Amino acid sequence: MTEYVIEKGVPLAATTHGGRDSKTGLLARMDLGDSFVVKTRQEAELFRNCARGAGMKIASRKVDGGTRIWRVA
Predict the structure, then answer these.
(1) What residue segments make up the domains of the chain, in order of their start?
(2) Cβ-Cβ contacts under 8 Å for 67 (sequence gap 6 or more)
(3) Distance of CA 66 to CAs 11, 16, 50, 59, 60, Å?
(4) Least CB-packed of 18, 30, 55, 63 within 10 Å?
(5) What is the pLDDT of residue 9?
(6) What is the mean pLDDT of each run of 10 residues along the chain (73 residues)?
(7) Predicted local confidence at residue 49, as pLDDT
(8) E strand or H helix at 36, and its extent?
């Protein structure tokens, strides 16, 4: 059986692969009315889920080149 060592005081490393934390961080840096464009529907869905999980509200609309996402609350 594998023995696991529990460690205290180890800081959580920042994500470097574009995970949920980096998406939530991007949304948190936005002012109300700010927007950006994502290229795929999957990216837009990830941002919607992250915003919902963080208690933020966004709006999205299809535009030329992808989907534009606005922070609305």
Answers:
(1) 20-71
(2) 37, 38, 41, 43, 44, 60, 61
(3) 36, 24, 18, 14, 10
(4) 55
(5) 87
(6) 78 59 84 92 92 92 92 92
(7) 92
(8) strand 35-38
